[in-house]
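User: Hey, my collaborator sent me this sequence without any context and asked if I could get a structure. I don't really work with proteins. Can you help?
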Amino acid sequence: MVSEDLPGAQVGGLGKHVVTLSNALLELGHQVDIMGRSDCFHADSAREVGFRGRLLPAFSFARPGWKEFQLGFFNPVKRPWFARRVARALLREAAKYDVVHYHGHLPMAGRYVPDGINFVQTRHDQGSECVTHLRFKQEQVCQTRDVRDCAACIHPAPNSLRRTVSGMAVRRYRFESAESFARHKTVFVSDFLRRAFLRSVPGADLSRARVIHNFIRYPLLRAHAAAPEEVRAGEIMLVGRIDAGKGFGEFLAQVQGWLPAHARVRIVGDGPLRDPLQARYGGPQVRFLGWQPYEEVIRMSARSHVLVVPSVCEEACSTTVLEALALGKPCLALARGGTPELAAYQYYDGQLQLAETMPGLVEHLVGLLGAAPVTVALPPAYPMDVFRAIPKLLDFYGE
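Assistant: No problem. I've predicted the 3D structure and written it out in structure-token form, which is a compact way to encode the shape of the chain:
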């Protein structure tokens, strides 16, 4: 496994995905190492991220000095340069392994890996065609098709030169990503991501690509399931990085004045918008709990009345939604990105309630809070458990 998101003191969703998959493969008797960044590595890195195997420090991204924000345009050379650095690092070790599986933010990395290497990459976000990975601009989902418009994501008022250079960077980024996908096997974590790439790069060869949704470690979630008497009526749980696109501010603004007296909002996570949102909305009914260990997040989620995933960006395949569904909790989200695809994993109709707008989401929430919490006897197995996903991946590895 290769990822520039590992190691780290606080691991995001992509890094957790890699660790979950790697540990499960180890349990099944496979040899698995994780290759990551040397500039974040220390002797206790594997334990810190929860990996039970060997973590290899291989490449550094510290202080590259590209000055994109100072110059006000995306550099056409920057991302291919980093991709080559990752490719060179994995090629030094690739001969020792049957499969090299890359989980990262440089989709063109496979372009620099020879055909003879069994190279697979998983695309976790819209970074296949968007250099910011979100397709989210000026607090709205970005629908532009003109690559020169991407300059607005790095400069507030780009001139013609900045638009042209940024357009060159994005065009090269997409072209090299398409070359990588045509050369090597690619997993998209939702069909939404696959379709989104084809909208930006019509005619791209995705014949070697598969859609395999994200997965969770279901036995761990089931072990922390709450008994009916432990569920706290009126408790609303939000989990995630508190930044633009995740919708925390939009949700809190909309829910003001709508919360019943017994309702409590609990927000778990950290990020650049935490402090201003806490200053504006924090109080007896809205508490910001900061970053919490994963098992504690699961325990709190299991005891909540309802989970809300208020992302206004287009989530590719929200693990938070999958965790809520696996725990049997009602889950509210906007009908955007790959989230509607996850309705296939509900225990009962209406467990995942999707709204077109934030006011609509809050209306659904008020309705749920007016009824007693729903409790579900969790089954022994869940279709999106990591051990259910592994046979699909092993089959793909062997193609």
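In plain terms: The first strand starts at residue 33 and ends at 37. You can pass these tokens on to your collaborator as they are.
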